[in-house]
Amino acid sequence: MFLYKAGQFLDNNLNYLNFTKAMSIAALEALKSNPSPNPKVGAALFDKNMKLKNKSHHLKKGKDHAEIDLITKSNIQDTDYLYITLEPCFHDDTSPSCAKELLKTDIKNIIIGDIDSDPRTYGKSVDYLKSNKINVSIENGVNDFLNPYYKNSNNTKELTYIGKIGISNNNIIFNNDSDEKYITNQISLDLTHLLRATCDAVLVGKNTFLIDDPKLNIRNKELDNSTNKPLKVIWWGSSIPSTTKNKYSDYTFIETSSLKQLEKILLNLGCRTVLVEGGKFVHEKFLRNSKYSLFYEFKSDFDIPNGLNIGDFYKTKLSSSFKNIDQITLKDNVLSIYNNK
Ligand SMILES: NC(=O)c1ccc[n+]([C@@H]2O[C@H](COP(=O)([O-])OP(=O)(O)OC[C@H]3O[C@@H](n4cnc5c(N)ncnc54)[C@H](OP(=O)(O)O)[C@@H]3O)[C@@H](O)[C@H]2O)c1
Fold first, then answer.
1. How much is the average pLDDT of 281-309?
2. For tag attachment on the chain, is the N or C end more exposed, with fewer CB atoms within 10 Å?
3. Which of 121, 146, 171 is the last residue of a domain?
4. Backbone phi, psi, residue 286, to 5°
């Protein structure tokens, strides 16, 4: 099976996460909506020269799956390559079986992002398509990135938390001597925005909100007009002045000092995955309570002489309770990805 690797398409920083270029186009497409309770799924169709013909995503539950939408609007040839971020569904539910619908087309080459852990599909579509002479290959890890909660989705009472931090070479997370609030480079920032797009909410603590005035939105040209808008959550340990609430009406302020209570409120808001961006106190609280499934540390290559150091607790906890599963060079930054051991 021919897998497209590099060079032909516009830069899309998902390539840094080891996605092939073609799959990163399907993945970015998936991030254009949040079809909760369904997972985010994207599809992209390429001709025999790997020229993009069409792309699609699952807009919302009850609407066509990405594959069906793509089939409907495309003239599929047997020399085409179809990239889908998740194994096509095997079962007929509110929409038809995508695997069976794909078999009615001329497609012969399908590349999927992950096997669907939903027991109604779980490998059945791959077997079915292969037994009907379709070439199917798998690029592992794509759905895991797009839908971090997914493998945990049988447990609706538990949230999936992802931690993220931007940090200097000497472990500073806030620079006292500069008005420039970003410590990391543009690729790290772009990936942060894509990470936000994989989550239902982005959360920071009160001090971060007051000091940084963060927008907490998704800033990415492809996703600008998308319907995917994670909640912007500010965790406030005490009661919030009503002037603040009124001024920032598109933010969700959660007033509680209890992590348990915070979690209950996030679940009631329909969240499945929450990206926690800090600051220091919030990260320590989540780390102490073993809440993170994944942690993304974006590190710059320079020291900051004066500022807020993330401290020993963070470093000790990350090295003792997490496994470093990936280390990716992003020009002059390094992204270290950790998962909970
Ligand atoms: N580089 C990065 O990636 C990054 C990301 C985010 C933030 N930051 C930096 O981190 C700094 C803020 O971190 P932070 O640790 O001060 O605050 P924080 O984690 O943003 O917020 C602390 C929250 O915890 C509550 N809290 C309860 N007990 C606390 C205690 N003993 N100490 C502190 N907060 C307590 C506070 O609410 P109440 O006061 O209402 O109880 C507040 O909601 C800022 O300088 C920001 O720029 C850096």
1. 97
2. C
3. 146
4. -70, -40
